[in-house]
Amino acid sequence: MGDEEDLFTVRTSHLNTGLRGVPVGTCRTSFVTPTEGVHYCGYPIAELAHYPPEDIVYLLFNKELPNDAQSAAFKADLASRGHVPPSIAAVFHTLPKDGHPMDWLSVGVHTLGMMDTTGDWKEDTMNLIARMPRMMGLLFRIREGRGDDIPEDDVSASMVKRFVQTLDLDDIDHDLMERILATYLVLHMDHGGGNLSTFTGKAIASGHATVYASIAGAMNALSGPLHGRANQSCLEFVLRIGTSDAEEVEAFVRGELEAKRPVFGFGHAVLRAEDPRATVQFALGEELCPDDDNFKIIRTLREVAPRVLSENPKISNPNANVDIASGALLHHVGFKDPTYYTTFFGWARVAGIGAQIVDERTVMRSGKGTPIYRPKYFAEQQNLRHIE
Ligand code: CMX
Question: Which of 27, 111, 132, 163 has its CA at a distance of 20 to 30 angstroms from the CA of residue 201?
């Protein structure tokens, strides 16, 4: 059987595996290769890491990078859509303060949709992207009990600046925070078509629920500890290590493995080398915060963990993944509570998931759109011989 035929043959061994490896569609925004990781519209992520997030949003929707005039026009378009109704703050004030920030994010997206849905896939997606920075800032402030005296929203500022201005934290280096967040957003915007949150968002949209309902559902999927919340777990893991001494770090890693716990920040389902998104963030940390305690720990982990994990031949990729460094960088610039980290991931993914929803709803099948999702499930007792 040829490779291609094999790829498209569904076998009994594929059942009850969460569609793992079963081809179900095409993705116009990004793909992942084992060595270079994610590519956005053909560009390896390492080549895009230093672009402003707005230019990468443009890329995901238009499938080409903007020139200067297109970039300026796109930023102006986002500004024209950026106004967030102040009444969203009233909704946030009613939420339980100990609710997880990802649940707040899902409520926030839904609430924006209840306040203003046009029904046009692209319009709604662009409006949501434009409103995310302010909504994120309000979410942080109100959940932390800082809901008063919130600064005016400067819709003409960059996505990241609007968020940082809304937060309005004392004693932080705004430029540093903006630089770390801008890189974080670009690195996390998209990751192929089949990851759980993207697939979920597209599945919901396939039933013609609104963009807001679809993205809120995608955020719920992202919040799981096996998916986006690994982001939070990874810094919690680093904080538990508490030393950058190589021997102590090695003893800690071995202890985790003996206790059958994951060594967070290492391994990947598809990549077979260090994730370029980790490489970019390590370089950023070496430039911006080489002496930060957590950064020193992850620098040692990057040396030690792949060697220890390589001793187990079952582990397909012992190298660092995207989550190893992002937490240390976010912590360094002032985000001390890891439970918020997945909300940054979600904010970034609104662009990639949104672009994929717009493609599936308005481009695929010559513009008719992908039909409503309906994979087949067999009754357990049904005879499976015909697909052997
Ligand atoms: N620590 C401990 N065990 C690991 C491991 C790690 N970092 N990486 C892989 N393994 C184990 C797997 O659990 C699996 O064990 P079983 O056979 O007992 O089930 C075995 O090695 C083989 O796994 P694999 O084929 O190499 O990798 P998977 O596709 O099954 O899992 C991943 C990938 C990311 C879930 C896994 O490497 C892991 O748990 N890493 C730690 C958690 C983490 O950092 N998650 C963030 C992922 C970021 C991203 O996806 O981009």
Answer: 163
Q: What is the 182 CA–ligand 1 centroid distance (Å)?
A: 28
One domain, residues 201 and 107: yes
pTM of the model: 0.95
Q: Is the pLDDT of residue 195 over 90?
A: yes
CB atoms within 10 A of CB 274: 22
In the chain, the number of structural domains is 2
What does the pLDDT read at residue 4?
66
User: Dihedral, CA atoms, 29, 202, 98, 175, nearest 10 degrees?
Assistant: 20
Better-scored residue on pLDDT, 44 or 382: 44
Tokens at 184, concatenated: 């974080």
Digit-coded pLDDT (tens) for 149-168:
999 999 999 999 999 999 99
Report if residue 383 sits inside a domain. Answer: no
Cβ(89)–Cβ(142) under 8 Å?
A: yes
**Same domain, yes or no, for 56 and 82?**
yes
Spacing, Cα 9 to ligand 1 middle (Å): 26
Q: Is the pLDDT of residue 340 over 60?
A: yes
Give the CATH number, domain containing residue 121: 1.10.580.10
263 and 192 together in one domain: no
State the residue range of the domain holding 128: 37-173+183-228+346-362
**Residue environment code for 123-135, b if the CB has 16+ CB neighbours within 10 A, otherwise e:** ebbbbbbbbbbbb
Respond yes or no: is residue 110 known to be catalytic: no
CA of 275, closest atom in ligand 1: 51
Is residue 298 one of the residues assigned to a domain?
A: yes
Does residue 18 fall inside a structural domain? no
- Substitution site in 266, 270, 324 for ligand 1 pocket (most atoms within 8 Å of beta carbon): 266
One domain, residues 142 and 257: no
Pocket of ligand 1 (CB under 6 A): 230, 234, 262-269, 309, 314-317, 321-323
Residue 10 is predicted with a pLDDT of 86
Q: Within a domain: residue 11?
A: no
pLDDT band at 8 (very low <50, low <70, confident <90, very high): confident
Same domain assignment for residues 356 and 275: no
CA distance 143 to 272: 39
The answer on pLDDT for 1 being more than 50 is: no
386 has pLDDT over 70: no
In single-letter form, the type of residue at position 98 comes to: D
